[in-house]
Specification:
Shape: globular
Number of helices: 44
Number of strands: 15
Distance between the termini: 40 Å
Strand content: 5-15%
Length: 1010
């Protein structure tokens, strides 16, 4: 693995030098103790003292010290200079003799308790890298993990090239080890079966491998049966029994992903040592995926009938209400007479018969209707769907074996009985069949049918109750299926106790959490008291315009006033926009690609191949077609490139992982632009969902009247940084809880953004999220609606809290169960490690472990209890600090502005997606994200160049003003009309520095570089 294949020369230079320094890092790493000063003073001269101080503080920050010590961030040097009383200029002459700098570093390492890499350290590092290489194959990720490992072990990082050589060795060793661990599964018969996966089948009309990869687009009975056919095929190959547990989960995912990307022909050309492990993992993964699809389709098919029945009930109730208007009017007249105290009892009858009339009352009596059951007839409406449900339910219950946790015995026994009824064709529910699982609102149907002796009706009602109960149990995790991933036992999402024990200390070091519960609670208690002290000070002011308490103790949180935008910001924004070039979206993509090389990350699915000259042009056409929602057919007509060429390009080069890598290249470049730092440091991010309508059938699409007046749609959940860049995109079901996906985007961040703090609206502010964010070393900072109404917790007796905080303490109405947290602390860390290490996604953990309908287990309760503590710390801080509240609101506004940009860009077809499969929709949304980031990057860069031009005129432009020049304003970029990608022509318009000339007010132009 050549170094340049992993890192560019620019990357290498950045890795060897000083990065940007945030305020938190400045305080944490560049604060000297008295002992530090005593150590430094022995170096005598001011130059050496300051130089050694920089080395001493840089070592724990970076894990090494750059050769050019004098290039340290000015803020860091200034802080040390002030503390030591040495002029900053003294540092310029430090380290002229390399030997002096090296000797000083050796003393710093010894004083700080660090070590240099020796033979034993290399051995430990190699073992660590090998273990990680069995989980990941990305050299950049392995390099970063190695750096984190060395820092946590207090070992000085060696040279970049040397470290990359060990990364390459670990990757090669992982490939050899993979073969060794699966070779025993590869009997002659299995090898033949695996080879047949790659041979076209006349019945299927394609290879079995391709057939297995075709997903359903609807939840119809035919679709369920098609997936069941695949499941039966895979079980005949014993795919469901393949034990690949000797390979780490991440290694299995990696190999299966390679198998999906490669064609049958490409796999046939691979040597057996690489081909068979790929096919084995792909076969095993297909068994899991198809089983999940069967269960998902079962869920959606039952839910579809249930929703249709609810709609009919709603319509019937509306009609019933209309028909009852006359009876209601009659009742009003009768009550007027009966309730009049002036009318005697003996007069009521004659008045009713005379004034209202017997005919009218008889007619009303004739229209009387039976009283509706508790569910208003919902189950009766579902009864009409039995023919539909029986088209697939028997096959599902025959093919799948269900298990469950406490409280599911009756339901599982009912499922078993129903499967037997389906198998034998029996019509009568046997005596003693369980009914305890049936909801109370439906129990009356069964009782009435039993009382009437109507065995047919009883069977149908009981059958529907079983199927709906099974659906609900699968959703909550109370019922699970062995061999499934989405519907597995929630406990299986976690690292086993045996796997967790050796990782515990390493994980605690990486996330900065104490290994002992007492230390963790003491740390959290200190944070809470600090926040409460600030809140007490705030409440004591009693300012009507700020957070305050009323005389009755009610907490008042006034809405934030409009942001105080500097008066010159609006004028400057308009002035700069007028200076920017006006270009079409194609020109933006060509320019940004020229500077970032993002199209280089769109690699062929078959591996490294020659890239023809027209490939880059076609890649950009596909990106525009997907981002604007034009589609490839319309783009082919617009640009003149044949549809087949564009479709082939999209098929072979566009996948979620390649698009994510291309997007990361743009985000990383944007992160390094000078003007970007005026927007934010990159440590704060936010996430939110954006809805898009969908044309045609799709498993991910749902009806949601609030967003889709006619038809269905999906939700795109995006994570954006405070620098206006989008670093993660997921397509989720529009009705799915967004809170499940909040943490996933941060943990899956592959960009250089140092995201640490995350903002959401109320949807993300679940107790589980508060707990998990803290346990993986992140900060959740949501904007919670009705914050004053949530329950806050105290860690001690109420009297003690009130004595210390008379006002703020009254808001903490419940006492925290610290014993529960203490008893489950090790398991809480294990959950966090499982999520951060990729053993389970946060969406699975939050969605299953913490949403069970059965009695909560201790782990679930502990997660929520710890989340309640973290939410209380957050709430106290949020209420006490208006600046904090404004920063969160500002970040969420940045997300809304990016939503507007994406909506404007995806204009074609009225913004309705035509992609039907989840992976296709994901690819399209990543194209939209990539194009959006390209626009933001281009706009940021040219705004920066325009600011430079203004400053060269002698005008002062403060960074505070520049913070309000948002690059999401895209008036200078045209999205509409015919698209033409002429790469050579576009690049020819750029000057020697690679930019277009700015437009000046007098009509002349100025080269951007000035």
């Amino acid at each position: 693995m050549a170094t340049r294949d992993v890192f560019s020369e620019e990357d290498l230079a950045r890795l060897r030098g000083f990065p940007e320094l945030g305020r938190a890092e400045l305080i944490r790493h560049f604060t000297l103790t008295g002992a530090d000063e005593a150590f430094l003073r022995k170096f005598r001269t001011g130059r050496n003292v300051l130089g050694v101080a920089v080395q001493l503080c840089t070592l724990p920050w970076l894990g090494f010290v750059p050769d050019e010590v004098s290039a340290a961030p000015a803020a860091a040097v200034g802080r040390l200079s002030q503390r030591l009383g040495i002029a900053m200029g003294e540092l310029r002459g430090y380290g002229e003799r390399e030997q002096t700098r090296t000797d000083h570093l050796r003393e710093v390492v010894a004083y700080a308790g660090w070590r240099t890499v020796d033979t034993g350290e290399w051995k430990d590092l190699d073992e660590f890298l090998f273990a990680r290489a069995m989980e990941h194959d990305s050299p950049k990720l392995l390099f970063r993990l190695a750096c984190e490992y060395l820092i946590s072990s207090r070992v000085v990082r060696p040279g970049v090239v040397h470290l990359l050589e060990h990364v390459a060795t670990a990757r090669a060793r992982a490939r050899e080890e993979t073969w060794t661990r699966v070779a025993h599964l590869l009997t002659d018969r299995r090898r033949d079966e695996l080879d047949l996966l790659l041979v076209p089948d006349a019945y299927l009309g394609r290879t079995p491998l391709a057939w297995l990869g075709i997903g359903p687009t609807s939840s119809s009975p035919a679709a369920v049966k098609a997936e069941l056919e695949k499941l039966d095929y895979l079980r005949r190959l014993d795919a469901h029994t393949l034990d690949l547990s000797t390979l780490p989960e991440q290694r299995r995912r990696f190999l299966a992903g390679v198998g999906r990307r490669l064609t049958a022909q490409a796999l046939q050309r691979r040597e057996p040592e690489r081909r068979y492990p790929i096919l084995l993992t792909l076969l095993a993964q297909s068994a899991v995926d198809v089983l999940d699809e069967v269960l998902l389709l079962f869920d959606q098919a039952v839910s579809g009938r249930e929703s249709a029945a609810k709609q009919k009930v709603t319509e019937a109730l509306a009609e019933r209400a209309k028909g009852g208007e006359n009876r209601q009017a009659l009742l009003d007249e009768i009550l007027t007479i009966v309730l009049d105290p002036a009318i005697g009892d003996e007069q009521i009858g004659p008045l009713l018969r005379g004034r209202i009339g017997m005919d009218r009352m008889r007619a009303a009596w004739a229209e009387k209707r039976e009283r509706l059951p508790r569910d208003h007839g919902h189950l009766a409406m579902m009864d009409a769907s039995m023919t539909y449900l029986r088209q697939f339910a028997p096959q599902v219950l025959r093919a799948v074996r269900f298990a469950g946790g406490p409280g599911t015995d009756e339901l599982l026994r009912a499922v078993s009985i129903l499967a037997e009824l389906y198998a034998t064709g029996a019509r009568k529910v046997p005596a003693g069949a369980p009914v305890g699982f049936v909801p109370t609102k439906w129990a009356g149907y069964l009782a009435a049918a039993a009382e009437a002796g109507d065995t047919t009706a009883y069977r149908r009602y009981w059958e529907i109750a079983v199927l709906v109960g099974l659906r609900d149990g699968l959703r909550s995790g109370d019922v699970f299926v062995s061999g499934s991933r989405r519907y597995a036992d929630p406990a299986s999402f976690l690292l086993t106790a045996e796997a967790w024990a050796p990782q515990k200390l390493e994980f605690c070091h990486l996330v900065g959490k104490p290994a002992q519960a007492a230390d963790a609670l003491a740390q959290a208690d200190d944070e809470l008291h600090t926040a409460l002290s600030d809140l007490e000070t705030q409440l004591a002011k009693g300012d009507p315009g700020e957070v305050r308490l009323t005389d009755d103790g009610e907490l008042i949180i006034p809405p934030l006033t409009a942001e105080d935008v500097p008066g010159e910001a609006d004028a400057l924004r308009a002035e700069l926009a007028a200076m920017l070039p006006r270009v079409p979206i194609a020109s933006v993509l060509v320019e940004v690609d020229a500077r970032t090389g993002f199209t280089d990350h769109l690699v062929h699915a078959g591996g490294k191949v020659n890239r023809p000259a027209e490939l880059k042009r076609n890649l950009l056409y596909v990106i525009i077609a997907e981002a604007t929602n034009m589609g490839l057919s319309a783009m082919a007509e617009s640009c003149g490139v044949p549809y087949d060429v564009l479709a082939w390009t999209a098929e072979w080069y566009f996948r979620p992982e390649t698009l994510e890598a291309a997007n990361a290249a743009v985000v990383n470049y944007h992160h390094r632009l000078p003007l970007t730092q005026a927007f934010g440091s990159g440590t704060l991010s936010s996430s939110d969902g954006q809805r898009f309508p969908v044309k045609g059938k799709s498993l991910t699409a749902r009806h949601l009247s609030r967003y889709f007046a006619r038809g269905q749609g999906v939700s795109t959940y995006t994570h954006v940084s405070d620098q206006h860049s989008t670093f993660d995109t997921k397509v989720i079901v529009a009705t799915a809880p967004e809170s499940h996906y909040v943490l996933d985007g941060l943990l899956g961040n592959e960009t250089d953004l140092p995201t640490f703090e995350h903002a959401t609206d109320t949807h993300g502010a679940t107790l589980a999220n508060f707990a998990l964010f803290d346990l993986v070393g992140k900060q959740l900072s949501p904007r919670i609606r009705d914050l004053g109404k949530i329950t806050l917790y105290r860690t001690g007796p109420r009297a003690d809290v009130l004595a210390r905080y008379p006002r703020a303490g009254a808001l903490l109405t419940r006492r925290l169960n610290t014993d529960l947290i203490t008893g489950m602390w090790d398991d809480l860390l294990r959950v966090a490690a499982s999520v951060q290490g990729g053993h389970a996604t946060a969406a699975l953990v939050v969605g299953k472990l913490c949403s069970s309908k059965r009695q909560q287990n201790a782990l679930t309760s502990a997660i929520k209890e710890y989340g309640a503590l973290r939410r209380t710390v957050y709430a106290a801080r949020y209420l006490a600090d208006e600046t904090y509240r404004r920063r969160i609101a500002r970040q969420l506004n940045k997300g809304e502005n990016l939503h507007a940009l994406r909506r404007s860009l995806a204009y074609a077809g009225e913004g309705a997606l035509r992609r039907r499969h989840h992976e296709q929709q994901t690819e399209q949304m990543w194209c939209l994200t990539l194009a959006t980031n390209a626009i933001v990057c281009w706009s940021t860069e040219y705004h920066g160049l325009a600011v430079g031009a203004v400053r060269r005129e002698g005008r002062v432009v403060d960074d505070e003003v520049l913070a309000h020049i948002w690059p999401t304003h895209h008036e200078n970029v045209h999205f509409y009309g015919t698209h033409a990608v002429d790469i050579d022509g576009e690049l020819a318009q750029l000057d020697a520095d690679g930019y277009r000339p700015l437009r000046l007010a007098d009509g002349d132009s100025e080269h951007a570089a000035g």
